[in-house]
Amino acid sequence: MNKAKRLLAGIAISALGVEAAQAEYKLNLVQGVTESSHAVYGLHQYMLWVCVVIGVLVFGVMFYSILHHRKSKGAVAAHFHENTTVEIIWTVIPFLILISIAIPATNVMLDMADTTDSDMTIKVTGYQWKWRYEYLDDKIDFFSSLDAKSNAARQKDSTVDPASVAHYLLNVDNPVVIPAGKKVRFLFTAADVIHSWWVPDFGWKKDAIPGFITDGWVKVDKPGVYRGQCTELCGRDHGFMPIVVEVKEEADYRKWVNERKQQSSQTQQDANKTFTKAELMAKGEEVYKSSCAGCHQPSGEGVKGSFPAIKNSPVAKGPIAAHTKLVLEGKGMMPGFRDMLSPAEIAAVVTYQRNAFGNNVGDQLQPKDIAASR
Amino acid sequence: MAADTHADDHGHHGPEKGLMRWIFTTNHKDIGTLYLLFALIMFFVGGAMAMVIRAELFEPGIQFVDPGFFNQMTTLHALIMVFGAVMPAFAGLANWMIPIMIGAPDMALPRLNNWSFWLLPFAACMLASTLFMEGGAPAAGWTLYAPLVLQGGNHFPFVIFSVHLLGVSSIMAAINIIVTIFNMRAPGMTFMKMPLFVWTWLITAFLLIAVMPVFAGAVTMLLTDKFFDTSFFSAAGGGDPVLYQHIFWFFGHPEVYIMILPSFGVISTIIPTFARKPLFGYSSMVYATASIALLSFIVWAHHMFTVGMPLAGELYFMYATMLIAVPTGVKVFNWLATMWKGAMTFETPMLFAVGFVVMFTLGGFTGLMMAVAPADMQYHDTYFIVAHFHYVLVPGAVYALLAAAYYWLPKWTGHMYDEKLGQLHFWLSTISVNVLFFPQHFVGLAGMPRRIPDYALQFAEFNMISSVGAFVFGASQLLFAYVVYKCIKGGEPATDEVWEDAKEHGLEWTLSSPPPYHSFTTAPEIK
Q: What positions does the domain Cytochrome c occupy (chain A) (predicted)?
């Protein structure tokens, strides 16, 4: 009931053209926050109005004719069926209109494609189904995937109401952070299938293709959080690959960079540490939820015919070396997790899989063993 | 004795009785009927899949199907609608009407005709059977982009071979149509006197022959990549995933015109009849159709503005794509001029034809918008695209097919259809189809990607509206099936002309309703 009311209110308000309501019931392209996105919005509006004007003229003539030239009104059919002048006019005029669109479009295109003179570069790699961000200048490297709350709410039998999750499906665990006012160049590639990186507020999207590097750039002056999604069909969880870009003032950005670097040195320390089994299990459960449960299901039972079960599986109950190798290198549709997870995370998740879901194998893996297997 | 039997056969000229008539038939009308019936069944199968999609999208969250199955539904819905419903339906119209419209007794290659049809049900069954295989049906979208499609399991070879069979069927039908049109026109019917529906099909047939083998090649390359260790599309082996897209769209773009050019022909046939005027600008219609067909070969990469082509390439494809608006505009203006100062009546076929012109033009407008490459960066792979191509394919191609069905049903069956139900069908369809697809423009512009089984909350309201529209549209089509059934069973007998003064608008109206089993045994003379 509440939903129906909101719906009606939304339609009424957007019909009145009240700006405030448009945040929730958007009817038009986003204007965005970059020069390119403003230019694209301008082009879009221009074409929209060209189409509206042509539409009004064409349909106006048509409906006039439908109303007045009908037999029931006693209309008698004329017999003309050729008029060269008219036909030339309605070939030439559309052509001129097209030229008037093509010229500004070309300028915008040239500007969008110009990735030279950038202040920094971030390499983005698409994985099924997460994004990897490598800051080539600052040597930061991390993965970004759907946040845990959305992930729990989106499961088929979840009891969580999507409306209770902030930014449902548009939130990630690790957002990309970029400095305001700097020209940031993005390089795109993919590790498995084709993905596409799109933040509507930036005004463009680019495919991430295995074996290829494509690029694009942004310069955002206004700090804020900008959200988008993968737009190229990339498999089962294509709908769950959001992108979140945080734009921070230069000083805040530097602070973030330092924090990130500390985190990665922590990861390196973890790689040499020996964990207790309880620690491994707790960490492993976390990793399993974010990296494995999407296919193998939270229950470990898998999806029959598509994703094998972990519960009672010959791999999880067999030799640990083969199990580790599979997680590191992947097989078929399953990606290799060597780059996606830290040695500590891999050790934890393998241990977890061997000792959860009733697989009481009893053995465990330490981060050091992963390093040894490289 | 033998000689006598022979003489008797000549006397009957009627169909065999029973099931064998349909299996072995070489008669263009029987085959046309088979094609149309098959297409109608597929339309409901593909439509049922669309209902699954819209049911899942009714509300945020995953309610009914696994996301993997959702992808299977979008893929099969598209493949079945394109190759199972729209293309065979037009082939059915071609089989039924082309010989009658050009004054021929039958198609030129009747045995081939039987083959082209009977490949279809087998190909369709093979495609549908993948649903029951381990790992399910293909889930890589109708474009079957590599490398995603190569992750497919057991279904993979079945899908590829099914596509091959569908392609072989289309090519054989196209060859038959070309040969028929070239060789079997009545004396005096020059090319520039041919009905426009015949013209559009002739051009479409050439498109089919030119591009179906390209598609077959592309999917065969997928097959060898999967099973024979080639690396056409695998970067790891030195291949190129974008190459697949180039090949696919070199087929795929003309393919969209394969589905729309015959519609132009249908509309150009129906509007003059109900405006009681000759078609305005016949020759420019022919030239416009031919230019659209030629342009369709050189614009394929406008489906790929985001793959990172060189700037010069993107600019070229942008300019070339925009050009298509010119001949398409000419066609719309000519239809308008045909209606202008006519004496119009609005029986069901005319309603669908007018609905086509209005809504196809809307789809054309969004097409023009997305031709502009920088703006397309925003539209690409969003629901704005879904809205665009559904406007040109549903109120476009499908409306033309419905218009054609109502227009020729009395001729085919000898009975008038139920005009009241027909009009009800039109209005239900037209209201619901707009409720269905119009809001998709909004969610697309607001940032909803296509092919996602679940979405952010800001898209919820319009998706709900869209789904309601979908259910009503789906249900309305059952009404159409009923109207057809009722018309076949009986009804007010149709005259030969059916529509007032229709004889001036085509040879088909000079034959009895229904026409004799062998259409024109004596060729009519065209002045």
A: 279-357
CB–CB contact B319 A102 (8 Å): yes
Q: Would you call B253 a catalytic residue per the annotation?
A: yes
**Structure pTM?**
0.90
Collect all residues with Cβ–Cβ distance below 8 Å to B112 and sequence separation of at least 6. B172, B175, B176
Phi, psi for residue A177 in degrees, rounded to 5: -120, 130
The Cα–Cα gap between A300 and A353 comes to 8
Helices (H), B414-459: 419-446
Region A190-206: mean pLDDT is 95
Residue B320 has pLDDT above 90, yes or no: yes
* Contact across the interface for A153 and B61, Cβ inside 8 Å: yes
* CB-CB neighbors (< 8 A) of A146 in chain B: none
Write out A136-187 in H/E/C secondary structure.
CCCCEEEEECECHHHHHHCCCCCCCCHHHCCCCCCCECCCEEEECCCCEEEE
pLDDT, tens digit (0-9, with 9 covering 90-100), for B412-459: 999 999 999 999 999 999 999 999 999 999 999 999 999 999 999 999
Residue B372 tokens read as 């502009």
Tell me the CA distances in angstroms from B48 to A142, A163, B80, B195, one per residue in order.
43, 29, 11, 36
Q: E strand or H helix at A359, and its extent?
A: none
Q: B523: which DSSP letter? A: P
Any long-range contacts for B482-487 (C-beta under 8 Å, 24+ apart)? B482/B421, B483/B417, B483/B418, B483/B421, B483/B422, B483/B425, B484/B40, B484/B405, B484/B409, B484/B417, B486/B417, B486/B418, B486/B421, B487/B409, B487/B410, B487/B413, B487/B415, B487/B416, B487/B417, B487/B418
Q: What percent of chain B has pLDDT over 90?
A: 90
Residue that is written with structure tokens 């005027």 in the block = B277
B527: number of Cβ within 10 Å: 4
B178/B191 Cα distance (integer angstroms)? 12
Q: Residue B7 pLDDT > 50, yes or no?
A: no
Question: Chain B residues with CB inside 8 Å of A54's CB?
Answer: 365
Average pLDDT, chain B: 93
Residues B93 and B262 sit within 8 Å (Cβ to Cβ): yes
Q: Are B499 and B430 in contact (CB under 8 A)?
A: no
Count of A-B CB contacts under 8 Å: 306
Q: Confirm if A322 and A314 have CB atoms less than 8 A apart.
A: no
For B415, phi then psi, to 5°, come to -120, 150
Q: Which domains does chain A have, with CATH numbers?
A: 35-68+81-113 (no CATH), 120-259 (2.60.40.420), 271-373 (1.10.760.10)
The Cα A341–Cα A69 span in angstroms is: 72
CA gap B247, B414 in Å, rounded = 46
